Amino acid sequence: MLHIESISKQYPTKTLFSEASAHLRPNTRVGLVGPNGTGKTTLLRMIIGEDAPEDGIIRQRPHLRIGYLPQELETLPGRTILEATHRHEYPEHEAKRILAGLGFGEGDWERSLHTLSGGYRMRIALAHLLLSSPDVLMLDEPTNHLDKSTQTWLEDFLISTKMTLLMISHDTAFLDRMVTHIWELRNCTIQEYRGNYSRFLKLRAERDAQEAAAATRQAKEITRVQTFIDRFRYKANKAKQVQSRLKQLEKVKRIEQKRDGKRLRFKFPEPRPSGKLVLELQDIHKQYGSNIVYAGLNFSVERGQRVALVGENGAGKSTLLKLLAGVLEFEKGTRTPGHEVSVHYFAQHQADILNPEHSILDSLEDAAPQAERNYLRGIAGVFLFSGEDQKKPIKALSGGERNRVALARMLVEPANTLCLDEPTNHLDPSSVDILTDALVDFPGTMVFISHDPTFLSRVATRVVEIDEGQARDYIGDYEYYLWKRAKELESQLEKEESTPSLKPKKKRKSQDEAPTNGTPETQKSSRRELTKTVTRLEKQVLKLEEAIAQLESRIKNRDTELADPNTYQDYGRWNTLHLEREEWGKELDVLTHQWETLCSQLESQRAQLA
Fold it and tell me: Which residue from 53, 60, 281, 463 has the highest number of Cβ atoms inside 10 Å of its Cβ?
């Protein structure tokens, strides 16, 4: 449905694409990956016509409808949720129908868009796209700013849709669950792989090993031939053989082992230490219009803590972080910074802190007006901006490159307290790893928001859950928080289950007190029925486990067959096999759900029997 044919695209300081080709097939979910700045967003913009390749062509099926969700969502000031959805381009009743499907009630339609969190703004943008009924949906970092429940909703929606998907994401777990293919932007080309992200890593490693081995063999052969030429070049009786080998060398197509780009490596400078109490909020009241976010909040942070703020979208995490950083006014209460405290604030949306018209060097100069130009050039170089790249305007950078500029501004003048709102958004996986290492080694204090479980697990030493204007403290790392929350939920469920069961127990007791000759027989009969039920459920569970094992084996064999290059060449056959495999996957989900239900029933019956 969409063919990218030998496209080339370059800027004065960088080549993004050189003779790059790819084919987007119907009913596929493709993940577009590659380091920051390799042209992922540029490729999407070329597909929709907002940019154009210098050479080559992008062919589309006639009347193909494409929807595009950019990584930086539109603000649309003054618009309500309903207006932002239909935008006077589509019927209101259709907009209301789609909003209802995305979890918005009738009471939400007139709410102002600017009061929504990033996750719900993403839903509004998606609702507007769905009104156009696109054949291809292109998403640029769709999981940024999403809490766990909203991301689960998005994944369920994307898996169930019949649209073809092309999406950029640095969330490797999301890609593993979602995609059927990977397009990797590497060495100015598009390399296609079949399977999810984990399979892509395996296949790429195998391909790299094969290319390295082939290059080594070729180099040895070239050296052998060149040695012969050098040895017998001036001997008349060997002239014919020398000429033959010279022609042989000229025809050889050299295998180039291109190295991947440099990786971001940095360390936060040693800041001046602060007092023990870093930041304190007392009796804070904050509201947006009629929406009360906090009413009497008390909160404090001590030196050396790495505090993770967690909770659902719209709970008030970003508001609390801004209050701590001192960049947001409040209606009532006091904010008290500690002795010698200096704060750097990293905003969730880069437009909040970066001037799009400034160059990279100008942006660094804004953060440290007294710093020498050469020192700023050195800081920019640490974040992989060198030479003419340092003169690029902020508006020309990718999302990941803007994040790198914002991080660089934080290194220009060291601060002992960092307030970070989604610092890993837009960064590729390798850059996330290096940023994580730097933050773990940071000697100061940190308060941050993140939806990345791996990042949370490695960095957090204290977790604070924000819910309904309250901050619940968990003194421990993220693993401890998950364990503690699971225990709390388990205790709550047990309490809810035990409360309604009191009445039936009392009723049975009053019946037992009445003299009845058949009570022992009734108990024996009841026990026999329970035993029969347990035996029947055990057989059903065993039967389902056998069916699931057989189906998993068939799916594994089919995946191997689909990955075979010979199958890949015959697209008609591959598509038929793929559709059948998709049906098996749905059948496996149904069987697994049935198995879980039966296991729950079996456990309950065994408990009664005991």
Answer: 463
Cβ atoms < 10 Å from Cβ of 364: 25
Report how far residue 242's alpha carbon sits from residue 461's, in angstroms, rounded to the nearest whole number: 70
Distances (CA, A) of 256 to 35, 204, 219, 602: 20, 16, 11, 61
Backbone angles phi, psi at 462, to 5 degrees: -150, 135
Name the residue type at position 287: Q
Residue 507 has what pLDDT?
Answer: 39
Is the confidence at residue 513, as pLDDT, over 50? Answer: no
3-38 b/e (C-beta count within 10 Å ≥ 16 → b):
ebeebebeeeeeebbeebebebeeebbbbbbbbbbb
CA distances from 511 to 277, 321, 506, 519, 525 (A): 63, 60, 9, 10, 17
**CA pair distance 311, 466, nearest whole angstrom:** 5
Output the DSSP codes for 228-292: HHHHHTT-GGGHHHHHHHHHHHHH------PPPPP--------PPP--SEEEEEEEEEEEETTEE
Give the SS3 label for residue 164. strand
Mean of pLDDT values over 580-607:
76
* Tokens read off for 239: 């002239």
309: CB partners within 8 A, 6+ apart: 317, 320, 321, 447, 448, 449, 464, 466
> According to the model, what pLDDT value does residue 509 have?
37
In three-state secondary structure terms, 471 is strand
Alpha-carbon span 81 to 132, nearest angstrom: 17
Q: Could you give the percent of the chain with pLDDT greater than 90? A: 24
pLDDT at 508: 37
**Phi, psi at 268, each rounded to 5°:** -65, 140
Lowest mean pLDDT among 419-428, 474-483, 598-607: 598-607
Report whether pLDDT(536) > 90. Answer: no
User: How many Cα atoms occupy the beta-carbon half-sphere of 47 within 13 Å?
Assistant: 29
- H-run or E-run covering 308: strand 306-310
pLDDT class of 238 with cuts at 50, 70, 90: confident
> Looking at per-residue confidence, does 348 or 154 come out higher?
154
pLDDT in tens, 200-225: 989 988 888 888 888 888 888 888 88
In this structure, what is the dihedral angle of CA atoms 271, 275, 279, 283, given to the nearest 10 degrees?
A: -170
Residues 166 and 136: beta-carbon distance below 8 Å: yes
Average pLDDT, the chain: 82
Per DSSP, helices labelled H in 313-428 are 317-325, 360-367, 373-382, 399-412
- CA distance linking residue 603 with residue 598, whole number of Å: 9
Retrieve residue 233's tokens: 């070049």
Pair 418, 370: CB distance under 8 Å: no
User: For the whole model, what pTM was predicted?
Assistant: 0.58
Strands (E), 450-573: 462-467, 470-474
* Residues β-bridged to residue 59: 3
- Provide the strand spans (E) within 121-256: 136-140, 164-168, 181-186, 189-194
Element housing 10 (H / E): strand 2-11
